[in-house]
Amino acid sequence: MEKGRIAILGAGESGVGAAMLAQKQGFDVFVSDFGKIPSQYKEKLQELNIAFEESQHTETEILKAVEVIKSPGIPDTAGIIKTIKAKKIPVVSEIEFAKRYTNARTICITGSNGKTTTTMLTYHILKNAGLNVGLAGNIGHSFAAQVATESFDWYVLEISSFMLDDMYDFKADIAVLLNITPDHLDRYDYKLGNYAASKMRITRNQGAEEVFIYCIDDEETLKAMKNVKLNAKLYPFSIRKKIDSGAYLEGNNIHININLNDQLTMSITDLALQGKHNIYNSMASGIVAKVLDIRNTAIRESMGDFKNIEHRLEHVAKISGVDYINDSKATNVNSTWYALESMGTDVILIMGGVDKGNDYEMLKDLVKQKVKAIVCLGKDNKRIHEAFEEDVEIIVNTFSAHEAVQVAYHLAKKGNTVLLSPACASFDLFKNYEDRGNQFKAAVKEL
């Protein structure tokens, strides 16, 4: 039975996944991408005989839709979105659409920083404990594609604020909000309050059976929580104070005390992930595991042997006593702050790219303490010079990963660290942050 047309804007991982699921559910599917469609996605659409177009949006075809699924990357201010909304056609995210067609339960993780790491760690713990679990959202294969082709009982989903903006009836069984710091403010009228409200949508539709896990040390989170009615069970985590029901740090030990008869205690020295921010990430994952009644021994084991993701504080090589670290995934100032926070002293910092209205003020103290030179990697480095000219003796401009690594190599002495942690998007010189990280790694290996 024909159910009408679904138009899908954007033919990346989420768009093609949504197309697969919509086709399986009996909709007439039309995929439209304003840019060029990457070959692997184009081949998939051709193989499934799904109608698509690239380098344009044909309004007459799109406006035939009963519903539009849009890529998280397309802002509401885009002309085509305004036209669709003026015609009162609903616009939803791929995640919202996919959730209608699965009974699997969802663990949804959001936050300005740490969400990929926490999502991967949570998935690692659940999978090792024998749960039938999928990994999706901002990471891995699209949620919709997995709903169409797999049958998992649980999903761990990494959720961005852009995805949350287009979620309405979606409900997270377990929601995790790690932190709220300024990011992507260009999409939120440069107002942190708008962005924070977007993050709080992770608690939407939750009732007394659901769980909300949050960082009680994060002021912006606490402010944002005052503006919504929370019905879920609340489990906070903190490294500053004792928590009755949640997780906290005491001395060098993490305590997770959701079930008082079966508390989990683990030394932070046994965690695979080091650095203060990773204590938070590990606590959040640990609470999820305890909510699901996973055994303490299994949780400890998984938290101890977890391997972090590529491009996130990834150790590339040690050459002539200098460590080279790839943190290309640091596309905002806060991520770079976390990277510097976990470093020793004497860092050669490679940073720069497309600046999303960054405020570099928060980095100044750490840069003064730890950074001996900044190597700019971007087309326009003016704001980096302005921000740090008084804090660092040497600031050099470079225009390729190879050049940046060569310059850093000459500036570094034995015992120093060369850290690629750009604090900016990569689109001026690279395809994406992975491409930037891979070019950096290749350049280091040529040294």
From TrEMBL:
Q: Does the keyword Ligase apply?
A: yes
The scientific name of the source species is Pedobacter africanus
Q: Keywords on this record?
A: Ligase
Q: Which E.C. number(s) belong to this protein?
A: 6.3.2.9
Q: Does the keyword Ligase apply?
A: yes
This protein's name: UDP-N-acetylmuramoylalanine--D-glutamate ligase
